[in-house]
Each structure stands twice: as structure tokens, then as C-alpha cells.
Structures
1.
Amino acid sequence: MDEVAAAIADPIRREILEMLRGTRHTAGAIAARFPISRPAISRHLRVLRDSGLVRDELVGRQRYYALDTAPLRELRTWLAALDEPAAWEHRLDALATEVHRTRRERRSTAARARPGPPPGAPEATDNEENSA
């Protein structure tokens, strides 16, 4: 995973990987897209090949490079794990839910426990003194 992370750390190598997505290119075609020397592109391709992100195939006198995403899976899994909430965050969410449920139950229990007028008794109003 460290080799893969180091390989994709360079912007030129990331651009090469994007070029190779879905197609293959020769080293010359790749070098033609960059304002750096062919030997520099060869070094970038060697790093990508050593990390497993690129595979090469010799066809006649041409060497074709193609993307291999298999080494990215381990890195992708590791990054996804970092993006997930930590276990304690799940516990805090559960605690917040439990506190909310307990408060709601207490309110409904308190409302049922309040004494109301006996069945059949007239409802008392604030204006009883004025009506007498």
C-alpha cells in the first residue's frame, strides 16, 4: 500500500493513470502529452509499474502501458475505513437516541399521572368567580 500511495503522490503519475483509464498507450504517446523529457516519463512509468498500478506489454517494437486498478483496492479500503465514523460515535448516537426516548416516556407518564376532574364533573374554568 505504501508503494501505491507513493506512486499516486506525484501529479504527473496521477495524470498518466488518468490517461490510461480505459485504454492503453505507448511510452511515446504518454511522453508527448507532457512538457518533460522522455527519460523523466520513463522513470514515472517505472514507479507506476513497480507499484503494480501499470502493466506493460511488448508488441513488436512498441511497449504499451495499461492501468491495473487491483493495487488501489487495499488503499481504497483503508481510506474508506478512515471515512467511517469511529465506534464511539455510534455509541454516542445510540446514547442520544436513548435519552430522547426516555424523556418522551417521562413526559407521557407525567401527563397520565396528573389528576384530572372526576368523570362526569363539570370542567372548571378561570371565570367561575365571575359567573356566581
2.
Amino acid sequence: MPALPKHAAFERVRQDHQRELVEDYVEEIAHLHARHGEARASDLAACFGVSAAAVSKVVARLRRDGLVIARPYRGIFLTPDGEAMAERVAARHRVVLATLRRLGVPEEVARADSEGIEHHCSDETVAAMRRFLGQAAGTDD
């Protein structure tokens, strides 16, 4: 397979960064619902260390993209598309984390690194990680 031209590789990284924020929010909304039964803007602001205005801007984008339902003074809920994205991101995260652990990366470092790496792995890379871990294509752990 020929190498991508340098500008094409950078374009992919730019796209990954744009998707990263969306995926982090969707994943955290799913976690908050699982842990607390709801996700509120104030919870997201505390989690990400940002202002309520910053959360509001991202939630508006998620609404525009059809990933969440949010009404003023109410919780934030994932749509079916948002739930599907959260499941994909969480599965990819588990594979990246398991790979780092298998490579001998210390637990604390593996957890921190997996938070960023997960967003930049192609489906092909995740499939290779699964093979490395000896996992069948349909499993997540």
C-alpha cells in the first residue's frame, strides 16, 4: 500500500481532532447515564474542566448532528445514533487500553494514553490490535 502524501495524513489528523471532541462528549454522556441515570451540562463541565458555555456550544453541535436530545433545564439524552457512537467509541477504547496493557505500559499511563489514542485509530488499526490481543472481531474485551 503506497504511503499517503503528507498533506493527506495531516488532513486525517485534523478530521480526527474534530471528531475527538464529539466522541468524548457522547462517551461521557453514556457513562453519566450508566452511573447516575442522567447527564447534565454541569456534570459535563466538571468532567472536562470547561465552562457551562463551552458545554452548551458542544451540546448544540451534538443536537445539530442528531446525536443528543437536550432541552433547557433538562438532562441530555443520546439519540439512537448517539448511543451507537458511544458503544463504538467505548469498544475502541477498551481495545486500545487492553493493547497498551498487554505491551506492558503501566496502568495509569495506559489509561491516560488510551484517552487520546482511541480517537486516532482507524478501523484497520483496531482490527490489528484485536488480532494482537487474540480476540475475535466481534468481541470487545
